[in-house]
Write a structure and sequence with these properties.
With about 220 residues, this protein is α+β, with helices and mostly antiparallel strands. Among the domains are: about 40 residues, no CATH class; about 80 residues, Winged helix-like DNA-binding domain superfamily/Winged helix DNA-binding domain (Arc Repressor Mutant, subunit A). The chain is built from nine helices and eight strands. The longest helix is centred in the C-terminal third of the chain and has 14 residues.
Length: about 220
Amino acid sequence: MTRPCKAKVTLAKGQKEYAYYIRKNSSSVAAKGSDERELLSLTAIVPFDDRYNQKARVEELDIGLIKNSLEEVGSSLASDVDNLSLEKMTEGRSTGIHKILDAMSSNGSPKPEFEFDEEHTYFQVKLPVHIEVLKENIENSDFTPQVENLLSILDKEMSRVEIMESLGLEDRKNFRTLYLNPAIEFNLVRLTTPDKPRSSKQKYRITSLGKRLMGKDNE
């Protein structure tokens, strides 16, 4: 990678602040002032850019040069060049996302989730686990029937007190140990205020993963 990219300062919901990061000794720190200027200046002396030219045309490629280059590095693909058209050699360019979408659709996986910043300087793709894989992982883990009971009543955002009352529970420690903590660990339940887990206004809601496990996808 020859060009620095900014990353989110925190992963908190709604966070829109980005910064360049560099390594200083054993720590990763935000680049500021002279450090940031030096980082950006380094990109100007890199002789090659690993990004392809989106305006390039297939006709501009030379089969002979491609073959010579492959032969120089000892690639077994050199012998196949003569039997391939330029169109065939380049048809897969920039089709990675499409291939992922097609593969996930064909095996019944949920649709991936895409996240962009406002300037579209980056995108993040979340690939939800297939429901069958989730069930297999749960069956081979310490997943408890109590977690399933919790998910069955969690149809809206609820506080700890509301959940315990709905389940007819009184022991707070038992609730956290057998119900809440495992559900959070499996990403089946999430906090509405994750930055303040002990907030008096804290509530809990079922995740999309929890909904799929319980067959609540369409709710």
